[in-house]
Amino acid sequence: MALVALWLLAGCGGGDQPDHMDRDAAIYRAVLIDLVDRSGVELESMEDLPVLYIEALGPDGIPLEVQVEVVGGFVEQYEVRFIDTYEEAVDVELPGRPVPEGALLIGLGDIDVGTAANVNGEFYVRVDEAKRYGYTLSVRDGDRWEIIGDPTETEAEGLVPTP
Amino acid sequence: MNAGGLFRLHQLHRPSLGDRGAGALLPVQVFHSAGEALFALSLVGSLFFNVSVDAARPRILLYLAVTMAPFAVLAPLIGPIIDRLPGGHRAVLLMSVGGRAIAALLLATQLKTLLFYPQAFVIVVLAKVYTVGRNALVPSLVEDRDHLVVVNSRLARAGAASGAVAGAIGLGVLQIGDASWLLRIAAVLYGLGAVSALTIRRVGAVADVSPIAEATEMHGPGIRLATSGLAGLRMATGFVLFHVGFALKTSGEPAWLVAAVLGAGALGGFGGTYVAPWLHRHWDGQRVLTAAVLLPAGLAALAALRFHGVTALALALSVGLAGSVGRRAFDGVVQAEAPHATRGRAYAGLETRVEVAWVIGSIVAVLARFPSWVGLAVLSAALLALGVSRILTEIASARVGAEVGAATLPFRLLETAEAVASRGDRQQAVLVAVAAVEAAATVGDVASDRLEELKERSLRAAIDNDPELEDEVLRLAHDLVAESATA
Fold first, then answer.
1. In chain B, positions 25-84, which contact chain A (CB-CB < 8 Å)?
2. Chain A residues with CB-CB distance to B252 below 8 A
3. In degrees rounded to 5, what are phi and psi of residue B218?
4. Is some CB atom of chain B closer than 8 A to the CB atom of A86?
5. Rounded to whole angstroms, how far apart are CA atoms A71 and A59?
6. DSSP label at A106?
7. Integer Cα distance of B48 and B368 in angstroms
8. What is this structure's pTM?
9. Closest of B86, B103, B138, B70 to residue B331, by C-alpha
10. What is the average per-residue pLDDT within B359-369?
11. Which ipTM score applies to this complex?
12. Is B446 left (phi over 0), alpha (psi -120 to 50) or beta?
């Protein structure tokens, strides 16, 4: 009986999720694709799946449900790993504190939703190779989010602190 | 392999367990452990490494808490099922191993979705059910009670060996496929384990063992001390699994290192089956358990000072070794101090407490959010405190034991009487019970007229060979000894 109850709970524990989770995941996917493109790092040439380390820039963090959606969205192209601290992605012992070869560290900010969604994104390869962009996105065809215009480039705010 | 083939396989391996009665458990254990190794290896390709630890923590906590619930229910359920239903033990093993086959198949399609968490925990719960069920079953299967330690040790060794082989094959599978294939193969192995459980001989319902004698033995101070030691080790195992797993992930260590840490734990368990007999030749079971508690305390302190891959591996190895050695010591204490305990329910209660300790250790690791060195320092201090308290308890027991020997003699005789009665020899039980009351009269206060009454009744019971009168004498002896102690 107890196991049946556990199984039923298992069915409930990971089922449907709120619409805003799907929306946030779709927004982050669009921003991620653009950031990888702008970083100029040749990720596709690697033998194994290239690794995208993702750290939340905003104070609210990124909910587990959104993380799982993003992971699932790139399962064929990238090994997406959400991290809590930059040390998971960066070798702090090496000069320039680089990410491993074939990897990219990306920061994703909280999503500010109005008539369009605003979100910050940042990529990091090493301390002197990082950029931040401000994106505006709008929804098309009901659930597809597209970046409107060119993102605004700003100074990287330090995903990884300089030593 | 069909059921007939499996039956021949277990016939072939019967002598290797050292007891014909428990031989059929061998293929179940081998298939289960092989599936277990592949399940553990598949976690390397799971969502665990894709999502952030902080985001996953509430979900893991929820399912760990849910993991506790079945055990609260299972404690009183598993034992009676094994005891009352002829072949009930098969049902427990079939349900747990067969359930894992289904759960592994389902998990194979959900490694990167949110369903990963609940389904993985279903597999974990079923593993605990299997462990509780198997350990509760072995005492009723062994033909010779003195084989309990040997049988458990050899089962553990065979399981560790099959797990190592399966793990090596699993690494090869990962080179050509993804982790979902490991779970599909694990499902097949669990399925074979479930089928092989059908070959375990049917054990009839246990009817001739006195629950009083069993309960008296199983709640003795030696067994309580051993249970707390083993529970401490299991708590440490649960804590290390999650704390070290999180610490390795957040320090950016590769997934293969986490797999290696799991492998080191299994290797330690395997080594423990060889180290334990050597230790037992020099020390008694309680001292071995104390040493087993102190070993990981030292390694945890070392890892707290400098946490990296090597110290994590050493800690996992020591925890696996200590858990295995502790388990063998625990079996030895039970074998020596509870010789009449054969019922599943007597063991299921102990085993459940031990598994709940594992869950509590895991919950503490997830909930506390310790920095890696703080968590390891806390673990070291907790194990050290447990080890020291065990040493002090043993010293106190040795000192007090000599003083209270005479005072406890009536109780020990009474326990013996109940144990003898449980084996069906009521006349001899009556004689021992009368001796218990006489001993109580020597060291305490028993009215002489009541002692005479007891002797008269016992004589009449012997002459008439009246079971009801014999039971009456046993009850009266019990009351007189209890009254004497109260006085």
1. 47, 49-56, 58-59, 62-63, 66-67, 69-70, 73-74
2. 87-91
3. -70, -15
4. no
5. 21
6. E
7. 19
8. 0.77
9. B138
10. 92
11. 0.85
12. beta
